[in-house]
Amino acid sequence: MKSDTRQDLRLNPEKLPAHVAIIMDGNGRWAKKRLMNRIKGHEKGSKTVRSIVTAARELGIGMLTLYAFSTENWARPQVEVKALMVLLKRFLVSERDELMARGVRLNILGQMEKLPEDIQEEAEKTVTLTQNNQGMALNLALSYGSRQEICAGMQALAREIKAGQIQPHEITEEMISDHLYTRQMPDPDLIIRTSGEFRLSNFMMWQAAYSELFITDTLWPDFTREEFIEILINFQERDRRFGKVKCSTSNDGSPQ
Length: 256
Ligand code: FPP
What we know:
Helices cover 41% and strands 14% of the residues. The chain is α/β, with parallel strands linked by helices. Bound molecules: farnesyl diphosphate.
């Protein structure tokens, strides 16, 4: 494991987010700025994936979710979709040993059945191989869309109602959470989006109810371990109230 740097020491290991999710954006702009093909941006972005997964594991983050391919991304030019699939496959195969060595467990969130067969096979192999690892969970959101996820979950609940297994008034928030790809996972405490856009882009809309959001102008291929740690430090300085008031106020709301 990497030795602590001065920066790492500013992080409080007791107050780390249990689940960090990242909307990796800006690969195309990174390439355009360098007069390169967009695919070069995705290639450089894959290297960032590797370094941030390593950093998250070393820092002791319990769960990292990366938004790698959305349901909307299928509408990109075929050549770009194909290139992204090649990079995903390469990651799933080449990182297998590394994930095992570092005790990382891989999960896929999204419409697995929509992915090309070879990717499904490689993903299944890596998920099965790493399923008992206890170090960190790495979720790759692939062909993932929050609306599609909620829609599929509601269809499943409707089927249970139709089969008489539950009554409509018995539906709880926990039951809805349990019908999403993220079932049994903690909601993200922190969602980071690179490249400066202030939107969720159909990502974890149910799960993000109380997530802290951090938007950085840095383009994903330029995102570093150092900036990741600065964002985690910023997270630790935030006051999360989950819609409640601070403990230092009395029950009638007046400050104590
Ligand atoms: C957004 O940048 C990024 C994506 C749609 C794909 C993310 C994929 C990778 C980082 C590489 C492969 C992933 C793994 C897990 C190995 P954009 O193309 O929308 O950028 P732009 O907004 O600047 O055009």
